[in-house]
Design brief:
Helices cover 73% and strands 0% of the residues. With 103 residues, it is an all-alpha fold. Its main location: membrane. It comes from Gopherus evgoodei (Goodes thornscrub tortoise).
Length: 103
Amino acid sequence: FVPGVDSLYSGMSILQGKENIFSDCKKKFWNTYKTGLMYWPFVQLSNFVLVPVYLRTAYTGLCGFLWAIFICFSQQSGDGTAKSAFLWFRREKVNADGEPSEK
């Protein structure tokens, strides 16, 4: 279970005043769901194996915050995959340095 994917897409579509509020959910749900299935098990495994007990709540909160950022990015301009987020981040970094984005 990936929390909030379908409700976020349809809720944001309502707030943005889109006519078809389920179009983003139909386009991006499965990609986001699969990304969440790769992200959350890794988070929980690392949480129980590597993180001390007293920091587990903060670690999980930080990972949830990063997931929320990814979901918001995906709703705005991504396709629901981690690859699109990494490509976007890399492109922004290159453009911020003043170098051309083409190699």
